[in-house]
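Think of the structure tokens as a kind of shorthand, similar to the way a musician reads notation: each symbol stands for something richer, in this case the local conformation of the backbone. In the example below we present two proteins back to back. Begin with the first one, reading the sequence and then the tokens, and try to describe in your own words what changes along the chain.
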Amino acid sequence: MNVHLDEIIGWIDRAFGNEPAVYDCAVPDGVETLRSLLGDEGYQRYQRDQVNRQIIRDYLTNAVVLGIISEGGLAAFAAPLSSEEGRSTLALYMLMSAVEDAAALPPVCGELEVLKPLEPQPGDRSHIKLVPR
């Protein structure tokens, strides 16, 4: 089996579509201006999307290299990859799943559900407990 990583990564990058513009205007000089721009919600959204793209790119590339999904199977991921919300949801699914489970992800075996923010409920919250060896 021949795997062409550059073709796989190229396909994934094309499926993402255009990257959102960080800013539509030139950055004026000045450290304070730069700080305010980098703290801007638009830039933060851009950064989140870049992280999601990297998670998806690495996950799908590994899944193809390991033979979990075929290069042709990447087409099942095209729809969620093309939107920011789809990438955000898919990246979360991928973070919570082993690469070996790639064929069981919603774009392959079902529909990707839109994520909703959780609302804290009153009462005892779950706690992480470290278990000593």
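Once you have a description of the first chain, move to the second and do the same.
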Amino acid sequence: MKKINLKLISKKWLILAMIAILLIVGMILYFSFKKDNKNLNLGNNIGNKSIQEIEEYILNISSYEATIDVTIQSNKNETKYQLKQNFSAPNIEKQVVLQPSNIAGLETIYDGNHLTINNTKLNASTVYKNYPYVMNNYLWLNSFIQEYQELKQTVNATKLSEENDIVCMEVNLEGISPYISHKKLLIDKKTGNITKLIIQDKNKKNIVYILYNEIKINSLKKEEVLAFKNILASQLH
């Protein structure tokens, strides 16, 4: 009768048990990573796409909230602002000045019909009823998007390019605007994040330079932009 080697059997069972544990741990880590990666991509699923897909993504933005640094260059002066912007299509806008300190807290709000200017420091508001919507506001991303969409079918009016993983969407306004020649929107191809909006005059000199410190795309509803609606309604009656 063959003698059973208990030590060998115990060693084999120990190895099998360790392999099983490693497989279970591996499966847990795999599904955990897959879940986390899925949640991460929900917030921004445009990274590492083609430039055409990124263009389509930008042109289909329906809302955004952003904190931006704005530099405006005139012939004599350079002025800098930090602003917080909220937008919801088609024309709901709210902008708050964060810097400079002397006008910090100044709010400009458009609800589709009425323009409201709030001075939070003075606790004062001015409402302009039935105010016509001004789309061509150079500080707003949605203004650029609409111009790009309208001019996309015109020869040499828009340009889509990529350099060093930066996607550039460009609008040529020569002959359309007497003051502005080009607008350029820059997007990080790896992350899909909008980084800069550059506005140039006819000499290709930067006259407005916008740096997007933070931007969230398609995360707002118009009711969230118009959190002031109850105050506004009381002012209009």
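Compare your description with these statements about the second chain. The two ends are 104 Å apart (CA to CA).
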